[in-house]
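Trying the structure run again after the queue cleared.
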Amino acid sequence: MSTSIKSASPPSSVEDPPPPVTHPAPRRGLRRALRRDWQLYSLAVLPLLFFLVFRYLPMIGNVIAFRRFQPGGSMFGEDWVGLRYVRMFLSDPTFWQVFRNTLWLGGLTLVFCFPIPIVLALLLNEVRRRSLKRFVQSVSYLPHFLSIVIVAGLTMQMLATDGPVNHALGWLGHDEIRFIQEPDWFRTIYVGSEIWQTAGWGTILYLAALTTIDEDLYEAARIDGANRWRQIWHVTLPGIRPTMITLLILNVGTFMAVGFEKVLLLYNPLTYPKADVISTYVYRAGVESNSFSYAAAIGLFEAIIGLVLITTANTLSRRTVGTSLW
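Done. Tokens:
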């Protein structure tokens, strides 16, 4: 009697592929997020409208840098002139003078105004008396809330020929100095007033970044025998490095956009050789002389330089320290 033995099939060495993962449609996910968090998204409406109306739509007017614009005529110029206005300011000696002044003021502002808030934040972080710390913070923050007109007015009154500074110099036996009328003093006055107005406010971000540093790192450094200076160098500064790099990139991006309002309020025809910058030169050429196409060409040139600077700084930061804006 024969029995039939059914042989079992050998197990397959190839596993069955997993079922495909289905992702929700991006539009459906976006609609669901908007429906769920519409209150949060509504907060971004006004800032987006601000940038759209006052930052992006005016870019359309850059076309008059390549067209001849006449007041009362077409909003986008009358005739196409190509690079005529670009060649004009590139061959203008006055433009290169204000370009050098812009580089000087921008460089001095970056060198002095960027590290001082970091130093002030580190000093405030070491203060243990809370009342003293709050007092110093309040005093250092106060100038930020003053109008630029008030800051310029105070600066001019303090440094006037019959002002307190010259009175103090007279008591010390020195001759009076015409600070406001001397071109060589303008850069010192501008950078000094900028430090006084912005140093305290700039410490806010660094103080916030200092609170995120883990206290266990300081404890480990103290166990290893590190004093306060070594703790600052090896723990505190690396902890706030991303914030430092981000603000440095932003400051480099605005390197060419030296404070127009403060320069306009502090300078005068006697200090033009050292005080006149691109923004004030564009103002005089466009608004006072009605050379709008010429001023637009210079402004576009300044914007392109700023774009190159911030892109270069962001790329270098990403490749060297691994921190960048994008």
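Residues 21 and 29 are 16 Å apart (CA to CA). Worth checking whether this holds up in the mutant runs.
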